[in-house]
Automatic annotation (TrEMBL):
Gene3D superfamilies: Phosphatidic acid phosphatase type 2/haloperoxidase. It comes from the Bacteria. Transmembrane segments: none annotated. Pfam families: PAP2. It comes from Chitinophaga varians. Residues 110-213 form the Phosphatidic acid phosphatase type 2/haloperoxidase domain. InterPro entries: PAP2/HPO (IPR000326), PAP2/HPO_sf (IPR036938). This is Phosphatase PAP2 family protein.
Amino acid sequence: MTSPVKAQLQTDSLAATVKDSFHLEIKPAPAPAFRTTATGLVVPVVMIGYGVAALRWHPLSDLNHSTNKEIQEDHSGFHTTVDSYLQFAPAAAVYVLNAAGVHGKHNFRDRTIILGISAVFTAGSVELVKHASHETRPDGSDNLSFPSGHTATAFATAEFLRQEYKDVSPWYGIAGYAAATATGALRMYNNKHWFSDVVAGAGFGILSTKAAYWVYPWIQRKLFRDTNKHASTVILPYYNTQWHSAGLSIAFFGR
């Protein structure tokens, strides 16, 4: 083999090696398995149990009426729509923090899907129980008082904020739960919910987000396997508040 040919082959071999070295297929890291403490599950379950008990047990239902009476006596003309926006504040904070460079546990796609799953779980459970309980609101406007949907959403998003940033600082979670607690209080001050509605709503919201983090690793393994190198599929859950319907939306992206 002549020297020029040998040199060319060595050059081609080196080029191929360099190309292979930089031709890396980057795959998203698998979502870590969700873990929680016994207290983390017992507390929201007890909150839901308290709300259910208040539907039939007179000492707790009497507490509902006495609490509502005291609030309305001192703040009879109170009304605000802040609670309708404050319920989403913890979720918005997750995206604002990431945009500001304070990164949480998951990337944009993963945390968005987790939030969507939580929303479906929250809305589905709340709507089911509302129509099953037929609890009349304090202002008598309808029979969908139990549990509080605003409070459930607020605590679901607060738990979402806590899960994403608990390894960065516990204060993010504390701030989220403070906003959620304020949402629940405002629902009572607006004369839309009893105390037990708010307590149970918080329990439903917390459990829904915990359930979303628990099922997502399984969903990630099943739905994001690289079976087609020329296209990718993203499946997002959704909930339509106007029509009270939930489902999945599918988006295809070419590479």
